[in-house]
Amino acid sequence: MTRGGVKEYIEAVRGRYLKGNRKVKGQILDEVTQVTGYHRKAVIRLLTRGPKTEAGRRGRPKQYGIEVVAALKRVWETGDRMCSRRLQPFLPELVQVLERHGELTLADEVKEQLCRMSVATIDRVLKPYRKRGLRRPFSTTKPGSLLKASIPIRTFADWDDKRPGFLEIDLVAHCGESTEGFYLNTLSTVDVATGWVEVRGVWGKGQQRVGGAIHQVGKQLPFPLLGLDSDNGSEFINHNLYAYCQREGITFTRSRPYKKNDAAHVEQKNWSVVRRLVGYALQFQRGPGSAQQGVPTGGKLRQLLPAGDAAPAQEPARGQGPQSV
User: Fold this and answer.
1) Domain 156-310: which CATH class?
2) For the chain, which residues make up each domain, given as ranges?
3) pTM, rounded to two decimals
4) In angstroms, rounded to a whole number, what is the distance separating the alpha carbons of residues 26 and 21?
């Protein structure tokens, strides 16, 4: 007899067993043990306890609905994902500001529930979003191996030059949840001696575009550009940028693969400057002409794009840097 058959058989005789006297119960137990082969004590448990029911959620019922959770997540993101202990006292003020600027519309009941949330409740509600999160962006660095032998390695311990002009550079991708397709990037540069930061928006990761952005940064610096230190990505380790550095007398070095501490200065600014200002994802709309044309919906990165970024390609003369498209 299958387990399903045993279950149906027990359900059929349970009523007679519970209503019968001692003699009837003994006869039913003899019958069931003979048919099923179960131990007598097991049959007694099955007949007296009844079928198992699904255990419900333990503890108090949920007090905050989907609308309250969504509003809390929106306010938390707006507050730069601050911890719950810091966020809770400012909830009423943040909600008021977001409503004033049209970023949030809440019913009075939802607003009341949101503003009276405790620190522990905020921690519990936001726990799955913190785990999910997001703050580990995709790595878009693809190694360029052709020139590695010609470009020396510089580690974090080698920065002993006190002169300004030696920059750590990195490219920050704004690709969101996928690295496929065409997306926007930010060239982040930091002077090691002074901490001076320059950033430029770059369409894509093309060598010519990145090289043109580096040349724009060099013209904006309040001191001469003396050296560049990059990771091992092909957007930096290429003949275009290498020839530019040789032509301009710029020291060109690279960090060790998979050693982010070698570029600790620019890695820190990638978060404190670029991510906090621009974010992790920027969407753009395709233009009617070329597939490479687009208009970013984020105005902050548009402000970082150099005016000459859309200029036609041309062969650079001495002192003009790599091609800019």
Assistant:
1) alpha beta
2) 3-49, 66-132, 156-310
3) 0.49
4) 9
